[in-house]
Amino acid sequence: MKIIFIRHGETLGNVEKRYIGRTDLPLCEAGRQKLMQKTFPDCGIVFTSSLLRCRQTAQIIYPDKKCAADKDLDECDFGDFEGKNYSELNGDPYYQAWIDSGGTLAFPNGESSEEFKRRSAEAFDRLISRCDADTAAFVVHGGTIMALLEKYALPKAGFYDNQVSCGCGFVCDFDGRALYITESI
């Protein structure tokens, strides 16, 4: 089976380098334009996060495909860091502790890295187990893609090793146990 992972198009929050997890931002006009200028691989079914930026991206890329939104594919809950950028968080002791931990500490009043990764993997497993298409696209968040590739991709890599820009992603072969990245998009 082929799996296509695509990070949603750019939002104003991305432009401003903000931690945007649960905030339901739409795509910005530049993000829409960039998506419309690219070509993406075809698929049989599209799975998206429940958040607007992913659903809008899927509508632009795959206007004639069936899309299934799943809340468990949503981005991490950044808690008290939500909507803020580095300059606004600079000097915050909780933010510094999170940075010093390599991003492994739970976000204050948000989700832990392990909770987020587990939720993402459980959603992927559930959706793929019911999928009868030869190729499935996941139009999701950068964090969701990194979590799934960390868990399933071979050769093994760390969470931050597969960062992906807005509107970009990976094509993978999936053998039911492991993902093998075959192409970057």
Describe this structure in words.
By secondary structure, the protein is of the alpha/beta class. The protein is built from 7 helices and 6 strands. The chain has helices spanning 12-15, 29-36, 52-61, 86-89, 93-100, 113-129, 142-152, and strands at 2-7, 45-49, 67-70, 135-140, 169-174, 179-184. The model has no long low-confidence stretch (mean pLDDT 97). It has a 6-stranded mixed beta sheet with strand order 3-2-4-1-5-6, sandwiched between helices. It has a single domain, classed as Phosphoglycerate mutase-like (Rossmann fold). The chain is globular, with a radius of gyration of 16 Å. The longest helix is centred in the middle third of the chain and has 17 residues, at 113-129.
CATH C-level class: Alpha Beta
Number of domains: 1
Strand content: 15-25%
Largest sheet: 6 strands, mixed
The strand order across the widest sheet is 3-2-4-1-5-6
Shape: globular
Ends: how far apart?
A: 18 Å
How many helical stretches?
7
Fill in the CATH topology: Rossmann fold
Task: Please identify which CATH superfamily we are dealing with.
Answer: Phosphoglycerate mutase-like
Structural class: alpha/beta
Please give the CATH architecture. Answer: 3-Layer(aba) Sandwich
Estimate the helix proportion, in percent. 25-40%
Whole-number mean pLDDT: 97
- Low-confidence sequence ranges: none
Strand segment tally = 6
| Rg over alpha carbons | 16 Å
Order of helices and strands: EHHEHEHHHEHEE
